Amino acid sequence: MSRRSAIDAARARSAWLFVTPMLVVLAVVAAWPLARTIWFSMTNATLVDLTTYDFIWFDNFVVHAEGRWYGIFTDPQWLRALWNTLVFAAVSVSLELVLGVIVALIVNASLPGRGLMRAAMLVPWAIPTVVSAKIWQWMLNDQFGVVNAMLEGAGFTDGPIAWLGGSSLAMVSIIMVDVWKTTPFVALLVLAALQTLPKEIYEAAKVDGIHPVKVFFKVTLPLIKPALVVAVIFRLLDAMRMFDLVYVMTGSSEETMTLSVFARQALVSFQDVGYGSAASTGLFLIIAMITVIYIMTLKPLGQEKAA
Amino acid sequence: MKSNRLIKNGALVLLWIVVALFLLFPFYYAVVSSFREGSAIFEASLWPGDPTLANYRAVMTDQPFAKNILNSLIVAFSVVVLSLGLATFASYAFGRAKFKGRRLLLYTILGVSMFPQVAVLSGLFEIVRLFGLYNNLLSLVFSYMIFTLPFTVWVLTSFMRDLPVEIEEAAIMDGASSWTIVTKVFLPLLAPALVTTGLLAFIAAWNEFLFALSFTLTNEQRTVPVAIALITGASQYELPWGNIMAASVIVTVPMIVLVLIFQRKLVAGLTAGAVKG
């Protein structure tokens, strides 16, 4: 037997032994609870007593009874939450992507103090989401907030603006906070990709006198595309399941309620485990679709260089 | 030519300052607010004026905030130790061995890391109740594994793959078992990766909100994010912003210090977790 195949055999023997404990834990914390959530979504269980319930099939999702439609898919509040979630995800991820690339390009310019800049970028990321939500809630306070004070001081406005009050401004505010918090993350991923690019191409482009903007769109952008795809997917999934920022900043207000906030409200506040589970299952299906599409676009894992 | 470059660099520096101000100002303002007391906090000025530690004292004495910090530390440390322990062995199998079903398993784990947390909430509620863990920190340690475990496995696998094969070959030829190889040969080599991954898992557990909010009931059992989110004033109409900002600064400063110390490694860990698909 060759040396290599002896090693492979030894590794394969222990592989399952080493993987199993981790898989058992994942089964108990992820697979089983998910299966139960999907099960509960077809029941009328309540949080008061999780053991007695009727199985009602898809009535929590959509049902026509006594001339009216019921179920999350016809619930205006759920549809509003779906719309909010989509708007939030689309707008904040696009902004984060564009700003992230710009910030990465700025930081990538070789100037003294680049390290300091990179450190500054990590600060919003290091602040716990709940804390940043509270800080911004305070800064955006309509009467005593520093944002209104600065806008008024600069002469942009002449009265306080109710940023987080019940209007479309609340969504704008939440998107702004999310952009503040996660643009640095996107920028760091892009920066890492930028730093692997070969310098020769840029020198050649410079010698040939090609305009930097053209170089960016024709050379840089295609080369950093894989990093951008990863950043978009990670941010998109995070945005689709957004809970803490919205919950802390605006509670259960209709204008900003996301799918996660809706599901938890039905489940915990209204104790309606059946309906809440249906809402959770709906969100899970949406995210599962995005995940499957993402995984299908990945390079097959088995083809990376053998260890 | 030279002045042209000077202008360009000047513009860049200006841009940096604008970006840095935008990134750092909210935290600066939280610090400033945390040192103001009484009516001074409502003045919205950019300087602390007459700084006082009253808010810090209040947050530590009027409520069990020290206990909240301890809770967060206990939960986060336990989660890190458990995740790293399980993930180290799993990542050895994923990173170095070829076995049937390996690819499918890795994709499944990647899939789990993308779960919306709320999708397992009712199922977890049932388990937490069944084992009598409601309002108990163990329920948090247990439920946090759902996001720390896939992540640590994924990142450690990518680090494990890059370790030199010669060391392992030599150990196998000397008759070392897989257990010995992982614990005696690879563990020391992986130490830097473990620190990075552990820190990222620690931050995730320290920041978690949804499970902590749902599985704890009393202020005594709360972790810091929930405690901060639920700080209330003497009356329904009064929000103690000074206290909230003081509490925010207390839990954020250690995080920022940790992140800045480990910044290079953290970025490497984040990209390893994200990019290597």
UniProtKB/TrEMBL annotation, chain A:
| Keywords noted in UniProt | Cell membrane, Membrane, Transmembrane, Transmembrane helix, Transport
The places in or outside the cell where this protein is found are: Cell membrane
> What's the protein's topology in the membrane?
Multi-pass membrane protein
The UniProt entry, under CDD domains, shows: TM_PBP2
Report the GO terms under cellular component.
plasma membrane
Instruction: Enumerate the transmembrane spans.
Output: 12-35, 86-107, 119-141, 161-194, 215-237, 273-295
Taken from the record, one Pfam family name reads BPD_transp_1
The GO biological-process annotations, alphabetized, read as: transmembrane transport
Q: What range does the record give for the signal peptide? A: none
Family per record: Belongs to the binding-protein-dependent transport system permease family.
Q: What is this protein called?
A: ABC transporter permease
In which organism is this protein found?
Answer: Croceicoccus naphthovorans
Automatic annotation (TrEMBL), chain B:
Q: Which GO terms describe its biological process?
A: transmembrane transport
Alphabetic keyword roster: Cell membrane, Membrane, Transmembrane, Transmembrane helix, Transport
Please classify the protein's predominant subcellular localization into one broad category: membrane
For this UniProt entry, which segments traverse the membrane?
12-31, 69-92, 104-125, 137-160, 181-206, 244-262
Q: Which PROSITE patterns match?
A: ABC_TM1
- Membrane topology type, per the record? Multi-pass membrane protein
Keyword Cell inner membrane listed? The answer is no
CDD domains reported for this sequence = TM_PBP2 (cd06261)
| Pfam families in the cross-refs | BPD_transp_1
Name this protein carries in UniProt:
Sugar ABC transporter permease
Specify the species. Answer: Croceicoccus naphthovorans
